[in-house]
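Suppose you are handed a protein chain with no further information: no name, no annotation, nothing but its sequence. What can you learn? This example shows the usual starting point.
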Amino acid sequence: MQNFEDIISFIYQSFLKKDEQLEIPKVLGEASLIDIDIVKRTARTIRRVGIITVAREYSSNVETLPDQQLLSWTVGRRALLDDNQQTFEWLHKGWILKEVRFKHDGRSVERIQYRIGYLLYVYLLNKQKDEYQDFTNQVTLYQLNAAQKMERITYLHDERLLQLKDLALLLSSSLQWGLNDIGVQSIFPVNWSISKRISGLNFLLAFLMISSNKEIFDWKEIGSQYYPGIGGSKSFDAYKLEFLILLETISGQSPETLGMISSGQITSVYFAGDLEGTWSNFRAGPVHALTNISVSQDHYSTRATTLWLVENRAVLTRMSVEPYFLQETQSLIICVDGHLRSAHKHFIRELLLNSCINQTIFWSDYDEAGLQIAREMLQSLMGHAMRCKWICPDHSIITNWPEYQQRMESLLQYMKLEQEIVLGEAEDWRSWINH
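A reasonable first move is to predict its three-dimensional structure. Written in structure tokens, the prediction is:
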């Protein structure tokens, strides 16, 4: 049975205001619910300010669990509930308590609200402790498993070793993380639960294990090799896209580059200009498209000397149909279609490594998202020194990122524009190239 003194102590600590006290009835009687007056004592007065109604007694080892609606309750919650059978049952069982607050006259009701009961508080506290212990056990199991598996890693070849280096370093560091460390790691999105983060680490380890020793593999093989047995292949399906994005962020490589031939999704990369690959050649003129699979498995180069990275397809289409513009200016235009994906980044890196591009022109929308996309475009060029230019709404050119960022942040305080609105004509584009 719950100790009534514990309940009273809980109410004092959780719900009473300054100078408030409880006046417990001297005779409790046989009623299942007890009304306890809340009084406010000062040096001169004693005033009744409310009533708290609690269950007289209840067991902390009840067989029934609290209803799902109650699991999100906290000490600070003040709930307005209908006066119905469900509310009475929750009150009677001790999951909640009733708090009535009076107006200054001590009789007129100001408000009626329901608060978390001591029984529910203890239940949620124990549940939290059990979850913490369970998560701690999961982390320990992951770290033991990771330590054993990473000791036995052998790589197919030096190229795959270099591609997986950053992922392997991250997983090696994770062997020293405690549960609290996992909860604050910046590699995970802030809204990921602890359970999802641990699952993400297991996925990264599973991917490292299979990618290090298989040239090509399927999505289903990642889970089935890591969790042998029925259902293992589906182990990571629930968070497939998010885990693949996490992998790309850490490794800096696309899953296709690391050997995964089937992610179930095909990403298109739209471009216009001369392009040569091992299995395909494209000429300047219409808009062309590559897939993420072809980008990861082929090697591309271009005769172009000016690379345009634009946010929207409309800009790509308009520039590509301008007669002889691409040929005469030796331009290659890539549309990133919003935020850059791994296929775009890999394609851009390939071109920079295999071609003689001497300048890149960035062109995105003039809003918050456009500024972020411009930043991502620039990051895709890291490690390659060349002249960079950013197109401003007034058709002026800025040649360094800090100045462009400052200009856009000032602009965004009073206006936003799409790049199509300031598209300009071929003579404008040529002037930007020659600026």
